[in-house]
Amino acid sequence: MTLRFVHHSEHPELWDRLPAEFAGVVPEYNLHGDINADFWNRLFTDFPGHQFVLHDTATDTVIGAGRTLPRAWDGTPAGLGTGLDASIEAAFRDHDTGTAPNALCALGIEISPRHQGRGHSTRLLAHMADLARAAGLAHVIVPVRPTWKDRYPLVPIDRYAAWTRADGAPFDPWIRTQVRQGGTVAAAVAESSRITGTVAEWESWTGMAFPDDGRYVFPGGLAPLDIDHARDRGAYWEPCVWITHDVRRAPSGQP
Asked: What is the pTM of this model?
């Protein structure tokens, strides 16, 4: 195995493989966020050097993918904002107004199903820290989608984020991994990413029927979904947990 980080600005064709090779890694509903239509494609036109894949050159296999955006952050938990959507908007606002960034915001770390459980997510997180340092940025900030939150969709995100194991480590595996990498749990946000669609769209995305109005727990959801048939709308707020990494510390290793 020969691993190399490849940025979209170098070999954009590698990204064409992701829909097939990474199918199911992200729940279908997460591909239809309200903010996507305005900003998602601009990741690759405005910030191609900040989007990367982990490529095994020996087998020509894409193992993982990372998406990031530079943005300004005042260093306070409140300054992180209300989660993923607000951070994306802030990053593009900073870009469009010429505001200098001082942090790199992680939008997603994805590992191909065939290569999960081998520590690759840690490699991608470390590469984000290296990217930030190379750009003179002080922090990597991550609006984390907790791995096990879908098992507890009715538990408020602030309570879930505070759960620990008997050894004192964070309960959630992805939060725990980031803390072990030097991250600090800074805030928990109930309304991080907004996803709305018709009732039929939500039934397609979730594989469920929603025969009546009300709140529903659904597969893969981190919080309940609100269904309103009169408006033909399903509305969902995905929560997140903000984790911050000070990358001015000792440099991370490369794969």
From this structure: 0.92
